[in-house]
Design a protein that fits this description.
The chain has about 475 residues and is of the alpha/beta class. It has 15 helices and 11 strands. It has a domain of about 280 residues: Amidase signature (AS) enzymes (Alpha-Beta Complex), CATH 3.90.1300. Strands 4-6-5-10-11-9-7-8 form an 8-stranded mixed beta sheet, sandwiched between helices. It has a 3-stranded mixed beta sheet with strand order 1-3-2, sandwiched between helices. The structure holds glutamine.
């Protein structure tokens, strides 16, 4: 059953080939059997899952099932889940039982999807390798000595090894696309405002966006259909109708103009990744698309601007973790000041502390103009680059990440080289655009992702392009041998 895509599983449920209880049991067994090797899950909610599966089967027998009713999936541990630990990968929230469900969780629950558990992630979503998690690193199913990418590494590894047919992720600077790329799965970061951020623990509020991670574009479309939509509880969610993302998947690619940014094929890109990406682009050409060279001249400024804006916003968002209201509290505090200092000092890991320090500095009275304001101006330039590009082309394509999965420990002592894992993804968040990663031919036996970037609200177009490619290839169907 686990070899089937989410869409196929949904059809199997609809056709009565198996029940949700059978399907859920199958995936819970796989988690039991394989997750010790991967560490993709922080919490497995077996009992609740089986109860939800029984409800889903009941619902179906009464003729009230929707497309996702009874389909198992995993939630990134950044989404609040009522009465279930919601750790965000941090010691700070290790004991935190959320009192409510995030909107994304609520919507998927309402659709009848079955949550298998909460997936591992970089602490507060800060990282590109899953190594900053309090719960230890996740391992890449294609080579367990390597990282799965981050911060949605647990979701990516779980889907790649088919411990879950699909999972949710969040993407602030690349955290859906980069792990999707390193694990050989499909991931979509929607336009900023498309999916509600309510109940999703905030990292950098002006950049964070939730999206689906699954084997195929068709699967992502089914998930996005349920996840997207206006939410009055999130003031940044946009009041705009949700299209049926699965409806346009078959659209023709004839005459589609694909922009290739010169800056994405320059120094820093590994030869193997470049080869696989160029081969995939040829395939798009063969399907009728036209390749156009373009430039995004301010690309080099995106990482520096991001590493001011994201830490600045996180320093503010994380101030609520104070040891008083919820989460970790140090033992025997001397006074209030000691309680704050030691609770935060002991509850947060090094990368989170580094970001809080940088962010607090960048926002301080004497430096605000020099750093935060300047970064915001660069952000505008980056958005303009994209706006100009989309006058000439319909979609932009290039690599998702500069290289394939690196070894666990390889970059932990060098934060700057770690930050460069997201050079091709970050600008998309700064501009608020939708972006996607789909698996193409591997390089040296490791997965490679092709990134698709669209203009605002063109998720359906990206899914259409990805789906047409996946109809002609089977990279998205591959499962690492150990986990077949
Ligand atoms: N790797 C980037 C960072 O560390 C992006 C993380 C994310 O998208 N959540 O900030």
């Amino acid at each position: 059953m686990h070899r089937k895509s989410l869409a196929e599983l949904a059809r199997g449920l609809a056709g009565g080939e198996f029940s949700s209880v059978e399907l859920t049991t199958h995936f819970l067994d796989r988690i039991e059997r394989f997750d010790e090797r991967l560490n993709a899950f922080i919490t497995v909610t077996g009992e609740q899952a089986l109860a939800a599966a029984r409800r889903a089967d009941e619902r179906r027998s009464q003729g009230e099932a929707g497309p996702l009713t009874g389909v198992p999936l995993a939630q990134k541990d950044i989404f609040n889940t009522r009465d279930i630990r919601t750790s965000c990968g941090s010691r700070m929230l290790d004991n935190f039982l959320a009192p409510f469900n995030a909107t994304v969780v609520e919507k998927l629950d309402a659709a009848g999807a079955v949550m298998l558990g909460k997936t591992n992630m970089d602490e507060f979503a800060m990282g590109s390798s899953n190594e900053t998690s309090y719960y230890g690193p996740v391992r890449n199913p294609w080579d367990t000595e390597r990282v799965p990418g981050g911060s949605s590494g647990g979701s990516a590894a779980a889907v790649a090894a088919r411990l879950a047919p699909a999972a949710t992720g969040t993407d602030t600077g690349g955290s859906i696309r980069q792990p999707a790329s390193l694990c050989g799965i499909t991931g979509l970061k929607p336009t900023y405002g498309r999916v509600s951020r309510w109940g999703m623990i905030a990292f950098a509020s002006s950049l964070d966006q939730a999206g689906p991670m699954a084997a195929s574009a068709e699967d992502c479309a089914l998930l996005l259909n349920q996840m997207a939509g206006f939410d009055e509880r999130d003031s940044t969610s946009v009041e705009r109708e949700v299209e049926d993302y699965a409806a346009g998947l078959e659209g023709s690619l004839e005459g589609v103009r694909i922009g290739l940014p010169r800056e994405f094929f320059a120094e820093g890109l590994s030869a193997g990744v470049e080869q696989s990406v160029r081969d995939a682009l040829k395939q798009f050409e063969a399907m009728g698309a036209r390749l156009v060279d373009i430039s995004l001249p301010n690309s080099a400024l995106s990482a520096p601007a991001y590493y001011v804006v994201a830490p600045a916003e996180c320093s503010s968002n994380l101030s609520r973790m104070d040891g008083v209201r919820f989460g970790y509290r140090c033992e025997n505090p001397r006074d209030l000041e000691d309680l704050y200092k030691r609770s935060r000092g002991e509850g947060f890991g090094d990368e989170v502390k580094r970001r809080i320090l940088i962010g607090t500095y960048a926002l301080s009275a004497g430096y605000y103009d020099a750093y935060y304001l300047k970064a915001q101006k660069i952000r505008r330039l980056i958005s303009q680059d994209f706006a100009e590009a989309f006058q000439q082309v319909d979609v932009i394509m290039g690599p998702t990440a500069p290289d394939t999965a690196f070894r666990i420990g390889e970059k932990t002592d060098d934060p700057l080289s770690m930050y460069l894992s997201d050079v091709y993804t970050i600008a998309v968040n700064l501009a608020g655009l939708p972006g996607m990663s789909i698996p193409v031919a591997p390089a040296d036996g490791l997965p490679v992702g092709l990134q698709l970037i669209g203009d605002y609200w063109t998720e359906a177009r990206l899914l259409n392009l990805a789906h047409r490619y996946q109809q002609q290839t089977d990279w998205h169907r591959q499962i690492p041998g150990e986990f077949e």
